[in-house]
Automatic annotation (TrEMBL):
Keywords: Carbohydrate metabolism, Isomerase, Metal-binding. InterPro entries: Aldolase_TIM, Ribul_P_3_epim, Ribul_P_3_epim-like, RibuloseP-bd_barrel. This is Ribulose-phosphate 3-epimerase. A divalent metal cation binds at H32, D34, H65, D174.
Length: 215
C-alpha cells in the first residue's frame, strides 16, 4: 500500500487547523508541508512558524518540502519547528551532497526533489545517500495542476537507479495526483503520493485519503 501524504492547501489559519484535524482522523501516513519563497517558485506559502503550529496538533509525520533558494540556511529552524523529513531541490543546491549529509546528521530523513524538466540520470550520484526522492509531477509553486505524463517514465528510471545503486530511498510523487491516476503512478514504482486538491477539495477528505491508500 502506498504511503499517503496529504498536502495542506491552508488558505488561512482556520482552514489549516481543519485540514490537519481531518488528516489526523484519516489513514494518511505523512503530512506534506510545502514551503515556498517566491524566488525559486512564483508563490509564497509559509515558514517554520506554521510547521511548529502543525507539529503541535498533528499525529502524523511532518514531511517538509523546501521550495526555497539556499535551503541550508534554514535547516536548524525547520528541525526545531518539528520537521521529520526535509526534502530540498537538486535545482537549488550546488552542494547537495553536503546538504544531505547535514540533514541526516541532524537526525532528519533527507530527501532530494527534482523538477519535471530534469532527467532521472541527474540523481545518479546522490540517490544512494538520500532517504526520499521527491519527484515533481507538476512545475512547483501551485496546487491544482495537471499531472505531467512523462513522470511515469521518470519513476521507472528512478526505481531502476535505486536498485542499481543499492539505495533505500522511497519515491514520493508530488503534483496532480488524483483518484484516477494514483494506481498507475504506484504501478510505475511510486512508494508515496502527495495529494492536495484531491484530498481537500473532496466532499469527504478522510474518504479520499482512504481511496488513495487503496490505489
Ligand atoms: O504545491 C505543489 C507544487 O508545488 C503540489 O502540487 C502540491 O503539493 C499538491 O497539490 P495538488 O495535489 O493539488 O497538485
Amino acid at each position: 500500500m502506498a504511503i499517503i501524504a496529504p498536502s495542506l492547501l491552508a488558505a488561512d489559519f482556520l482552514h489549516l487547523q481543519r485540514e490537519v484535524e481531518m488528516v489526523n482522523k484519516s489513514e494518511a501516513d505523512w503530512l506534506h508541508l510545502d514551503v515556498m519563497d517566491g524566488m525559486f517558485v512564483p508563490n509564497i506559502s509559509f515558514g517554520p512558524m506554521i510547521i511548529e503550529f502543525v507539529k503541535k496538533v498533528t499525529t502524523k509525520i511532518c514531511d517538509v518540502h523546501l521550495m526555497i533558494e539556499e535551503p541550508s540556511r534554514y535547516f536548524e529552524q525547520f528541525k526545531k519547528a518539528g520537521a521529520d523529513h526535509i526534502s530540498i531541490h537538486i535545482e537549488t543546491c550546488p552542494r547537495l551532497h553536503q546538504d544531505i549529509r547535514q540533514l541526516k546528521a541532524m537526525g532528519l530523513k533527507a530527501g532530494v526533489a527534482i523538477n519535471p524538466h530534469n532527467p532521472a540520470s541527474l540523481l545518479s550520484d546522490i540517490i544512494a545517500d538520500v532517504d526520499i526522492v521527491l519527484v515533481m509531477s507538476v512545475n512547483p509553486g501551485f496546487g491544482g495542476q495537471k499531472f505531467i505524463p512523462n513522470t511515469l517514465n521518470k519513476i521507472r528510471e528512478i526505481k531502476k537507479l535505486i536498485v542499481e545503486k543499492g539505495s533505500h530511498a522511497v519515491i514520493n510523487i508530488d503534483g496532480g495526483v488524483t483518484l484516477e491516476n494514483a494506481a498507475e503512478i504506484v504501478a510505475a514504482g511510486a512508494d508515496a503520493l502527495v495529494a492536495g486538491s484531491t484530498v481537500f477539495n473532496a466532499a469527504d477528505p478522510v474518504e479520499a485519503i482512504r481511496l488513495l491508500k487503496q490505489a
